[in-house]
Amino acid sequence: MISSTISPTTRIWESLRPLLPSRGSDCDYWWKYTGLHLAYLLEAAGYSTERQYEALLFHYHLVVPYLGPAPASDGTFHWPTVNTIQGPPVEYSWKWNTETGAPEVRYTFEAVDKFSGSPKDPLNQGPSRDMLYHIASAYPSVDLAWMNHFLATLFDHDQHRYAQEQDDEQITTTVMIAAEFVEPGLNIKSYLKSRRLGMRDVPLEVYKQAIFQACPTSAAATALYDFLEDDPEGQLLTPAILGLDCVAAPNSRIKLYFRTPHVRFSTIHTIMTLNNRKAVSASQTESLRKLLAAVTGLPLDFPDEADWPINARFRDLVHKQSAKVPLVYPACGFYFDIAPGREIPNVKVQVPLYVYGQEEQQLAEGVSQWMKDNGRGKFADQFLKALPRLGDRGTAHGPDRVKGQVVNGVHANGVHGNGVHTNGVHANGVHANGVHENGVHENATNGTKGMDASGKNGVHSNGTNGAHAGMPRGLQSYLSVMFTAGDQLEVTTYLTPVLSETPWVA
Q1: What distance in Å separates the CA atoms of residue 77 and residue 83, rounded to the nearest whole number?
Q2: Distance CA 105, CA 141 (A)
Q3: How far apart, in Å, do the first and last CA atoms of the chain sit?
């Protein structure tokens, strides 16, 4: 269990706090809130003092000014971001350590300003462009050539017509940025969701043409396109987003994100191996099965061809959220890394924990126990201790809210999430979950008999309100998994900042 004694801040945060000047109420809000979250994660992941300072100062100077207005007094956002349920513009991720390494802390954000969504900037791309150029001026390794190419080829260039379309259908996130704090420095990534005038869903061909112009020869892209055309599971995938590393083209990667309309273990395995085009060992497959059982609560012998049941809290979310279109859907996302020089794509599955995961405590303990069972548990306890800190429970110097009261103009009863619309974008915080045309499955189960983290039979209550008192619901949003060399799995947990009680809790 998680210790009830949680430090309200970190040593690095405390040393910086009196030295960084106020820059207005909006910046102060986001710095005290997201900066403190970042400090918690960096400390838990064992970053050196020097790297913690570097990451926090990067965030303060180059990210916080672009996070837009603080939430209104009723909890709503000027521009709700699609990759978080409540709408804040930041999502964190914890890339789990290998047996000999340490975790990597990452986060994804959407730049916002007062013109976001207005006729001047209906696609909200201006702040992201501005932010990226400021980052590139500070970090010479950041290269925006491919970013500029894809901005020019994945979108039309008629702001007036985009604004007109917005009158009939809300236009939301089209650009997100990610920062990874890795050795020896910083990686910047960008994610683009194409939007074409007159098109609700942009076809794959638009992405293919843009990729071909940037990278005419790619064996990995050819392998992906063949799978999408020839394989029954591949034919069901629909494109969601394009990602790229903001470095010079020879070293950059292009990643295509897709969503699938159903979730079965057989589907996940087929797509991750490109129907056995990509060699994966039996031990890796079994390891994946155990990890997914740990997060879903399904028994290890759950049929490979059966659809996964949806948890009850997802039904609550769909019923109670006020967005015109649900934020998350009953399906999985996949990304395909088709970097130049690669013969076959690396493939990553992204499981929406809102939809298929257990309650927060069980989720966190399940993944942590899997790490310990696989010789990777060195940071598991630190992870468990850090999670409650990401819920807004009244931190010493962060946004101080008490449910039912307004403190400093911020309402405590939760964010309404209105106006959020998505076709399924999110990896590194950008997730490509799918759209289910028939609405919510009715085969969700409460109390599904499954395997607990230690491998013993137990009963998991997927749909209860029994989250740990210090761990708010909706905190763990996605789990991504990729087969890697040495019979290993790369595992990342995505974490959504919870402003107060999540909107689907009564």
Answers
A1: 13
A2: 20
A3: 25
Instruction: State pLDDT tens for residues 65-80.
Output: 999 998 888 777 878 7
Half-sphere exposure of residue 205: CA atoms within 13 angstroms, side-chain side = 1
What is the distance between the alpha carbons of residues 339 and 189, in angstroms, rounded to a whole number? Answer: 14
Residues 6+ apart with CB under 8 A from 38: 55, 56, 59, 92, 105, 107
CA distances 202 to 155, 210, 243, 483, Å, are 10, 13, 16, 29
User: Got the DSSP string for 342-382?
Assistant: -SS-EEEEEEEHHHH---HHHHHHHHHHHHHHTT--TTHHH
Give DSSP secondary structure letters for 428-466.
TTT------TT-S-S---SSEEEE-TTS-EEEE-TTSS-
Name the token pair of 71.
């939430």
pLDDT under 50: residue ranges of the chain: 1-5, 319-327, 393-429, 433-469, 501-506
Residue 350 token pair: 């992204």
How many other C-beta atoms lie within 10 A of the C-beta of residue 168? 7
Closest CA to 287 of 272, 309, 277: 272
Q: What are phi and psi of 405, to 5 degrees?
A: -125, 160
Give the span between the Cα atoms of 145 and 262, in whole angstroms: 36
Tokens at 34, concatenated:
């997201």
Phi, psi angle pair for 76, to nearest 5°: -85, 160
| Residue 446 near residue 262 (C-beta atoms within 8 A) | no
Give the number of C-alpha atoms closer than 13 A to the C-alpha of residue 417, restricted to the C-beta side: 28
- Which pLDDT belongs to residue 334? 98
Phi and psi dihedrals of 367, rounded to 5?
Answer: -65, -40
- Report, in angstroms and rounded to the nearest whole number, the Rg of the chain calculated over CA atoms: 21
Do 59 and 35 contact (CB within 8 A), yes or no? Answer: yes
Spatial contact of 220 and 339, defined as CB atoms under 8 Å apart: yes
Handedness of CA 279, 282, 283, 285 (dihedral sign): positive
Is the Cα torsion angle 443, 444, 446, 449 positive or negative in sign? positive
Q: Cα angle at 304 between 299 and 307, to 5 degrees?
A: 85
CA dist 430 and 333 (Å) reads 10
For 137-156, how does the pLDDT look when each residue is reduced to its tens digit (9 = 90+)?
Answer: 999 999 999 999 999 999 98
Measured CA to CA, the distance from residue 262 to residue 335 in angstroms comes to: 16
Q: Are 302 and 289 in contact (CB under 8 A)?
A: no
Are residues 483 and 348 in contact, defined by beta-carbon separation less than 8 angstroms? no
Cα–Cα distances (Å) from 475 to 115, 139, 389, 437, in that order, read 29, 32, 10, 26
